[in-house]
Amino acid sequence: MIERQPDHLRVTAPMVMANARGLLDAGRAAFKQTREVVDLGAVTEADSSALAVMLGWLRAAEGQGTHLTFTNTPAGVRSLAELYGIADLFPLA
User: Fold this and answer.
1) Gap between the Cα atoms of 1 and 12, Å rounded
2) How many other CB atoms sit within 10 Å of the CB of residue 40?
3) C-beta atoms surrounding 15 within 10 Å
4) Within 1-93, where are the H helices?
5) Helices 49-64 and 75-83 sit at what angle, rounded to 10 degrees?
6) CA distance 19 to 34
7) Which terminal CB of the chain, N or C, has fewer other CB atoms within 10 Å?
8) Going by C-beta distance under 8 Å and a sequence separation of 6 or more, which residues neighbour residue 84?
9) pLDDT the model gives residue 35
10) Which regions in the chain score pLDDT beneath 70?
11) What letter does residue 65 receive in the DSSP assignment?
C-alpha cells in the first residue's frame, strides 16, 4: 500500500473507501522522519475517502512532530478538495 523510497513515501494502492482504513493505518506506521513527502503519483483510482485519509495522515503526522507534504496529487482529488472548500488544508508540493 505504501512503499518507502529513499526520499519519500509512495502510495501504490487505490485511495478508495475499501482501502481507506488500511491506508490510514499504513501511513501512520510509515511516518518515521521529521519531514515526509507522500507521493500520490501511482494512485490510479481515488474517491472522496482519499481526502479523509490525507486529513488523517496530517493529524497523525502533526501528533508525531512530522511535517507532511503531498506530491503528484491526482487531479480528481484536488478537484474534490476544492469543491469541499478544504484545498488549503493540504500542503502540496
Assistant:
1) 5
2) 20
3) 25
4) 20-30, 49-64, 75-83
5) 90
6) 26
7) C
8) 51
9) 96
10) none
11) T
Backbone angles phi, psi at 55, to 5 degrees: -65, -40
Q: How far is CA 61 from the centre of its chain?
A: 11
Residue 47 — φ and ψ, nearest 5°?
-130, -170
Residue type at position 89: L
Name residue 86's amino acid. Answer: I
pTM of the entire structure?
0.95
List all residues 6 or more positions away from 45 whose beta carbon is below 8 Å from its beta carbon.
Answer: 14, 15, 16
pLDDT of residue 93: 81
What's the CA gap between 7 and 76, in Å, rounded?
Answer: 25
Domains, the chain: 2-89 (3.30.750.24)
What type of residue is 67?
H
Distance, in Å, from the CA atom of 35 to the CA atom of 85, rounded to the nearest integer, reads 26
- Measure the CA–CA gap between 57 and 64, rounded to whole angstroms: 10
